[in-house]
Every structure is written in C-alpha cells, then in structure tokens.
C-alpha cells in the first residue's frame, strides 16, 4: 500500500513524539516490581493474541484493560512497557487462515500502532498521577479521567490518520470515533479496574482465575466472528455466481444493498434488522440460479408463461437459504421482496402489514435500481423519473411511508404527497 506523503509524515511525527514520551517516562518514573511487570506483559500478550477482527475490518481489543491495570498497580512507565510488549509480541490468527505478527506486518503499521500505544498509555498514566491517583490504590476520579483521556486521544490520533487517507473532515471523524468507542472503553476500563483490584487484594492467582474465563469467552466470540466471516465469504461467492449467470445484473445487488440500508437507517430500524437487510440485498436474486438462461437473457418481452417462471426466483432463493441457520431470517425477506402493498405481488399475495418491513424496504431499493439501470429490452430511466414512478405507486406497489422516505432520502422534494 502506498501511503499519501502527508500520512507518512504524520506517522513519522507520531513516532518522534512516542520516543520523546518514552524518554520522559524513563526519567520521571521507575519500575518497582519487575515480576508484576512481566506478569502483566504475559496477560496483555495473551489478550492481544485473541484480537477479534470484525467483518468491517475493525479490530476489537481489551489491551486497554491490561494497560489500565498496569498503570494502577505499577505506574505510567509500567503501563507503557506492557502496552508496547503486548502489541509487539502478539500473534493473531486472521480469518482462520494465517497468523499475523510483527515479522509479517508492514513497517508503517508497526510504527503507527507502537507510537499510538506509547502516547495513549503514557498520557493516560501521567493524567492518572497528576489528578491524585496513587500506585496500588483505587480512586474513581483518576480512573474515569484515564478513560476519557484515552478515548479522546485515541479518537484524535485515528481521526487525523483517516482524514488524511480519505480526505474526510477531521471534526466529523472525531465525533463519530468518540461516539463509537466511549461506551466500549468504559466497559473495558471496568475490567481493568477489577483486574487491578484482584491483584491488590489477592495476588497473581486471583487475576488468572478471573481472567481465564474472560479469555475463554473472548475466544468463543472470536470463533463466532470467524464463522460469520466464512458465511459472508460464501454469500459473496453465491452473489458472484448469480451475476456470472446474468451479467446484466452485475453490480445490481451492491447498489440495492446501499439503497436498502440507507432507507432502513432513515426509518430507524434496529441494528439487527439493518444487518439482515444488508445480507438479504446481496442475495435477493440468488434464486435466478434456478431460472433458465434463455428466459433471463431474453432481449424482448416475456410471455405469460416465462414471466410466471421468472417469478419463481423468490421462492427458489428462499428454499436455497432456509436450511442455513445463519440465513433463516434472510430467507423470508428474499421470499417476499416482490410482494406488493395492495396484495397483487408474488409469490403469496401478501398485502399491507402482512409483508415484513425488511422485504418492503428491499422492494423499493430493488425497483429503483432496476429502473435506473440499462436492461437488454430498455434504456435506464433518469433518477427523477424513477423517483416519480415510486411515488406514484406509493400505496399500491409500495408501502406509502417507505416510498416517501426513500424519495426524500434520494433528494426529491415532496410536499402534500406530490412531487415538487
């Protein structure tokens, strides 16, 4: 990966700041218990090696909990050493296929992540001492300030990097990052506080007894995430096989997914339903695998018999997916995404609220993309005409509120139920 020059300079500056922070901590603080330092390093390395990488590429780590425990029980310098050693010594299995460690990680990533760990943990430790926190003593206010310092500084460092890479405004990235990480960081800080308390009250064994079940639970979650990743790979493979069969739909599923997810978000649907819609959108036409090529690729109008045959793709798709535990909820969305609000759709003639809202959302997104895409038998409509068509069919083909929300979301001005 070729980084922009600004990003390279930024990473270099972070590296220099981290070196300065390390020198300052060595001068100002010392290590009073090397056995404890080694213990936290081992615990931290184990925790980092069970790093969970979500499907969107975001890594979920509990190293902050170990760093916090090290700061409380050993001071800022101990916290920084634990954070750096744990990161550099970790061995992470990625998606069940390969191991990632310091020797096969790009140098710029190692420099950035190491510098980030030094700065985050170092500043957090200094803040802890500055506001009255004492080593081997618990105090609520200093711990809370560590959390807020960590969240803000981590968000700021990451937001600068992402804004340089994506040219997104720093303020937008910062606000989003803080919102995404604050609650999770508070929860992880609680774990770190409990670990520190366990050590101070009962010693090493209690920490191990407390941490081991947590690590096992984390490993189980890691396996679950990897299983979901495998399912998503399978989904993408199924989608590609369908697009290979019907080249005119190439890219259609991804565009439908984008429209459907935005509409679901605009309607305020919960995260679980949005995720189901996201997956269903990719697979909504998978049943076309069972339709004869001569019908799918016919350049002219379909006969009544051919149209009835192509209608079977919703039921075929649902049947393909219904026995896959991970996709059970998706199967029904796919089965009903061609139902109409007035009951004249297929395959079951459902109407109104009988149709799952996920299927109704998918229907709007699917029709809009179909109308604005070229087909063998017609040219694409322009955006405005397609939106007018959706609005005209609100209450008949489409659920009215979904149709109006979609048109508003796509930039159409709507007043008193009419297009302006």
Give structural attributes.
420 residues, mainly alpha, two-stranded antiparallel sheet, two-stranded antiparallel ribbon, 17 helices, 68% helix, elongated, disordered C terminus
Question: TL;DR of this structure?
Answer:
This protein is mostly helical and 420 residues long. It contains 17 helices and 6 strands.
Structure in words:
The protein is mainly alpha-helical. It has 17 helices and six strands. The protein has helices spanning 5-28, 34-49, 63-74, 76-89, 107-130, 140-166, 170-202, 204-245, 252-266, 271-283, 293-296, 304-311, 313-321, 328-335, 357-371, 383-392, 400-409; strands at 52-53, 59-60, 92-94, 98-100, 414-415, 418-419. A two-stranded antiparallel sheet has the order 1-2. It has a two-stranded antiparallel sheet with strand order 3-4. Helix 2 runs parallel beside helix 8 (204-245) and helix 4 runs antiparallel to helix 5. It is elongated and about 85 Å long. The model is unreliable at 413-420 (pLDDT under 50).
């Amino acid at each position: 990966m070729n980084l922009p020059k600004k990003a390279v300079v930024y990473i270099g500056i972070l590296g220099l700041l981290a070196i300065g922070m390390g020198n300052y901590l060595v001068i100002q603080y010392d290590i009073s218990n090397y056995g404890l330092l080694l213990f936290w390093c081992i615990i931290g390395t184990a925790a980092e090696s069970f790093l969970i990488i979500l499907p969107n590429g975001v890594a979920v780590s509990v190293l902050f909990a170990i760093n916090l425990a090290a700061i409380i029980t050993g001071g800022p310098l101990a916290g920084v050493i634990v954070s750096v050693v744990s990161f550099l010594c970790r061995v992470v299995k990625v998606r069940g296929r390969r191991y990632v460690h310091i020797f096969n990680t790009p140098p710029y990533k190692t420099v950035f992540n190491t510098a980030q760990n030094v700065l985050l943990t170092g500043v957090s430790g200094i803040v802890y001492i500055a506001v009255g926190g004492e080593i081997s003593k618990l105090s609520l206010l200093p711990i809370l300030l560590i959390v807020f310092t960590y969240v803000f500084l981590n968000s700021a460092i990451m937001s600068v990097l992402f804004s340089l890479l994506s040219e997104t405004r720093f303020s937008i990235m910062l606000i989003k990052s803080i919102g995404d990480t604050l609650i999770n960081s508070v929860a992880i800080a609680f774990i770190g506080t409990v670990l520190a308390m366990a050590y101070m009250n009962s010693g090493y064994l209690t920490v191990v007894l407390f941490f081991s079940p947590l690590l096992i639970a984390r490993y189980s979650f890691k396996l679950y995430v990897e299983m979901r990743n495998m399912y998503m790979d399978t989904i993408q493979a199924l989608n590609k096989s369908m697009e290979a069969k019907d080249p005119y739909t190439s890219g259609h599923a991804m565009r439908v997914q984008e429209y459907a997810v935005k509409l679901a978000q605009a309607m305020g649907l919960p995260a679980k339903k949005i995720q189901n819609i996201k997956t269903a959108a990719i697979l909504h036409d998978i049943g076309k695998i069972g339709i004869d090529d001569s019908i799918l690729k016919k350049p002219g109008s379909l006969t009544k018999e051919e149209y009835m045959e192509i209608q079977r793709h919703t039921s075929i798709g649902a049947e393909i997916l219904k026995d896959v535990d991970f996709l059970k909820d998706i199967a029904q969305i796919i089965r009903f995404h061609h139902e109409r609000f007035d009951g004249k759709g297929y395959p079951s003639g459902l109407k109104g609220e009988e149709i799952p809202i996920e299927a109704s959302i998918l229907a709007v997104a699917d029709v809009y993309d179909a109308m604005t895409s070229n087909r063998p038998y017609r040219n694409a409509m322009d955006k405005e005409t397609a939106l007018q068509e959706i609005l005209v069919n609100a209450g008949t083909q489409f659920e009215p509120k979904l149709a109006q929300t979609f048109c508003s979301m796509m930039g159409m001005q709507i007043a008193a139920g009419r297009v302006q």
